[in-house]
Design goal:
Blueprint (H helix, E strand, L loop, with lengths): L1 H20 L1 H13 L7 H33 L19 H5 L6 H24 L9
Helix pairs in contact: 1-3, 1-5, 2-3
Length: 138
Amino acid sequence: MNGFKRVLLAASTAALAINLFTGAPLLALWVGSQVQTSSAVSMAGLAVVIAVLVVTVAVIVFLLLHVESAYKAAIGQPQTRRRLPWMRSLRDESDEAYHGRTPLNGFERVLVAVVLLAMAAFEIWFFFFAGSSLPRGE
C-alpha cells in the first residue's frame, strides 16, 4: 500500500506541476476572455487575467506543499521546519551546510523532470514550429 501511495503522490505532483505551467495560464486567459466585451484589450480583462493567474498559481503551490509533506510522511522522512534563505543569518552558514546535502527525493525528482520536460517542449516548439514573428520584407 505504501508503494501505491507514493506512486499516487508522484502522479499528483506531476499533474500539479504541469498545470502550474499550462492549466493556470490557460484558465486565466479563458476567464479574461469571458470578461472581455470587445476585441480590444481592456484594463478590466487584463486585471481579471492577472488576478485569476495569481490565485490559481497560489492554490497549486499550496497543493504542491501538501503533496510534498504527504510524500515525506509516506517515505518516513522527518518533517523539518523550513527556514527561508533570506531569513537566515550569515553566521548560521557553516561548512556542513555545503557538504551535508541530501540527495533528491522522489517528489523533488518529479518536479525537476516536469520542469525539464516543459523547457524541452518549449524549445522544440519555439525553434521548430512557432515560425518567425518578424515581418517579411515584401
